[in-house]
Amino acid sequence: MEIYIDNRQNKVEVDNSIYELIEKTCREVLLLEGESLDCEISVSFVDNEEIRELNRQYRGIDRETDVLSFPLGDDIFPGELKPLGDIVISLEKALEQSQDFGHSLEREISYLTAHSMLHLLGYDHETDEDRLVMRQKEKEVMKRLGIFKNLKGE
């Protein structure tokens, strides 16, 4: 598994522990789904201004959001890693949400990564049923990682 991280923001400090957390979360989603680890994932950290522009440009929604997912096709050549897609996380929004929800920034980043990875694998939350399936999978990933909202667990 290759993960390429591009930190394009300067509002939230990022250290190696965040990069390790992203890798663990991506790996856990792939293992949960029985997917091959022979893949590439791009993760970009941006601020609210950039994610708002991306949200407007690609989804027609002119407001900031926490994470965007851009799945790629299945075209690969023998011996190459399968490109799953791009994840774009607003660290500024993630920090705001972690404070609003009363948990760590690390937990929020891990959750957003798991959520986005599921999108890259074809999941969506357009219906209540789909939303429930995604939420259960997100909870299972967080449980496997030992990352909970609070001391009581999720």
Give the total of beta strands: 4
CATH class: Alpha Beta
The CATH architecture name reads 3-Layer(aba) Sandwich
Structural class: alpha/beta
- Strand % is 15-25%
Round the mean pLDDT to the nearest integer and report it. Answer: 93
First and last CA, distance: 28 Å
Helix share, percent: 40-55%
H/E element order: EHEHEEHHH
The gross shape turns out to be globular
CA radius of gyration: 15 Å
The H-level CATH homologous superfamily, spelled out, is Metalloproteases ("zincins"), catalytic domain
Largest beta sheet, briefly? 4 strands, mixed
Count of DSSP helices? 5
CATH topology: Collagenase (Catalytic Domain)
Poorly predicted regions: none
List the domain count as a whole number.
Answer: 1
Strand order of the largest sheet: 1-2-4-3
Put the structure in a nutshell:
With 154 residues, this protein is an alpha/beta fold. Helix content is 48%, strand content 18%. Helix 3 crosses helix 4 and helix 4 packs across helix 5.
Describe this structure in words.
It is a single chain. The protein has helices at 16-32, 48-59, 91-101, 105-120, 128-145, and strands spanning 2-7, 39-46, 67-71, 82-90. The chain has 154 residues and is of the alpha/beta class. The mean pLDDT is 93. The protein is built from 5 helices and 4 strands, in the order βαβαββααα. It is globular. It has one domain: Collagenase (Catalytic Domain) (3-Layer(aba) Sandwich), CATH 3.40.390. A 4-stranded mixed β-sheet has the order 1-2-4-3.
